[in-house]
């Protein structure tokens, strides 16, 4: 019996006397390692755990109030008291961090987004209430003006331009009230140029040297954010689109530049958004920089899956977990996902 040969140049005629075919068969049978559950577990390259999940939540004014988000079945906006309960639930599930987004009363929206720097705005109150409960839980707050502007843009509008530097000054004020409220991580999601640098230096200047920054570094101008804009109440307001500040879905080299710049300016972690349609970008960013890289499975991705689950077209549990594992395979350190509590419960079983 000849020794195994793996030469692909050797040609053989298939037959019972053939010891080795090209590809190594039958010496090599890829299915051997898949033959039983224990073996599949043993050779698994990636693993999803509750520690990989960040749970985004929507906060609404009021008490004991939960209001459904029509385009995101199963997702509710919660009043501050219920957000604290949900935060405790996250800890019980082993979820390390939550991200809070406010539904802002239209009356509190304005051209200058002043509510963003109100130290008693909804996300600041929610953060203080969660922090008062002394949980081992990270609170991540979005830094962007869109929940607070009357026009629904992430920046200040002058004429028909979203002005960069003036917006940065507003983002600094917003960051400081959020850090003061106890936010562990600030997540600038607006895509203005230079905002990580000015926010970082303002935080250092005010003594918030341990406030982390998770930059939405490669954020695309995507149609997948539609349901989120319903959830925060900005979809009816938005004039035009966000293509002068968010990235063109056609680009990936540009994503690497965006990430490099934000790291240089002082970001501790970076994010790619949306998630599943941009796994190639997640892979490139995680491989190129080797820094904590997060992906956001956004509202539209959630809505797509949830709709198919409702129709009985896809198996909810299996599809959800597969969609999340895909992020780990692409190199993500973690995923922001509205499925976080359900996924964490399944993973605990
Ligand atoms: N800047 C705000 C912001 N932060 C997170 C999302 C989207 C999240 C989601 O769709 O789940 C958006 C919307 C947008 O940029 O229009
Ligand atoms: Mg940038």
From TrEMBL:
Region of interest (Disordered), residue spans: 1-23
GO cellular component: cytosol
Binding sites annotated in the UniProt record for Mg(2+): 258
Catalysed reactions, semicolon-separated: 2 5-aminolevulinate = porphobilinogen + 2 H2O + H(+)
Keywords: Heme biosynthesis, Lyase, Magnesium, Metal-binding, Porphyrin biosynthesis
An MF annotation (GO) of this entry: porphobilinogen synthase activity
Active site: 219, 273
The enzyme's E.C. designation: 4.2.1.24
SUPFAM superfamilies: Aldolase
One of the GO BP terms on file: protoporphyrinogen IX biosynthetic process
Pfam families in the cross-refs: ALAD (PF00490)
Biochemical pathway: Porphyrin-containing compound metabolism; protoporphyrin-IX biosynthesis; coproporphyrinogen-III from 5-aminolevulinate: step 1/4
InterPro entries: ALAD, ALAD_AS, Aldolase_TIM
Stored PANTHER family: DELTA-AMINOLEVULINIC ACID DEHYDRATASE (PTHR11458:SF0)
Subunit structure, as described in the record: Homooctamer.
Sequence similarity: Belongs to the ALAD family.
Protein name: Delta-aminolevulinic acid dehydratase
């Amino acid at each position: 019996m000849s020794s195994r040969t793996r030469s692909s140049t050797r040609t053989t005629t298939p037959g019972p006397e053939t010891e080795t075919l090209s590809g190594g068969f039958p010496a090599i049978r890829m299915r051997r390692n898949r033959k039983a559950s224990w073996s599949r577990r043993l050779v698994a390259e990636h693993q999803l755990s509750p520690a990989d999940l960040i749970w985004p939540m929507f906060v609404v004014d009021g008490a004991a109030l939960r209001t459904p988000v029509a385009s995101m079945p199963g997702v509710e906006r919660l009043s501050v008291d219920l957000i604290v309960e949900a935060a405790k639930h996250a800890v019980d599930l082993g979820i390390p961090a939550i991200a809070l987004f406010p539904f802002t009363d239209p009356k509190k929206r304005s051209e200058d987004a002043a509510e963003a720097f109100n130290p008693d705005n909804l996300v600041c109150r929610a953060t203080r209430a969660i922090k008062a409960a002394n949980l081992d839980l990270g609170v991540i707050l979005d830094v962007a003006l869109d929940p607070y502007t009357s026009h629904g843009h992430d920046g200040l509008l002058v004429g028909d331009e979203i002005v960069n530097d003036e917006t940065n000054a507003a983002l600094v004020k917003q960051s400081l009230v959020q850090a003061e409220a106890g936010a562990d991580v600030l997540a600038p999601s607006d895509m203005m140029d230079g905002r990580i640098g000015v926010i970082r230096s303002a935080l250092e200047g005010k003594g918030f040297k341990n406030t982390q920054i998770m930059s939405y570094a490669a954020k695309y101008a995507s149609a997948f954010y539609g349901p989120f804009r319903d959830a925060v109440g900005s979809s009816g307001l938005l004039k035009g689109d966000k293509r002068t500040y968010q990235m063109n879905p056609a680009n990936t080299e540009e994503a690497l530049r965006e990430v490099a710049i934000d790291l240089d300016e002082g970001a501790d972690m970076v994010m790619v958004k949306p998630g599943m349609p941009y796994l190639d970008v997640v892979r490139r960013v995680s491989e190129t920089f080797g820094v904590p890289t997060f992906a956001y499975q956004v509202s539209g991705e959630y809505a797509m899956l949830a709709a198919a689950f409702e129709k009985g077209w896809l198996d909810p549990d299996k599809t959800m977990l597969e969609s999340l594992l895909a992020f780990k395979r692409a190199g993500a350190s973690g995923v922001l996902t509205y499925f976080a509590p359900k996924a964490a419960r399944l993973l605990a079983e």
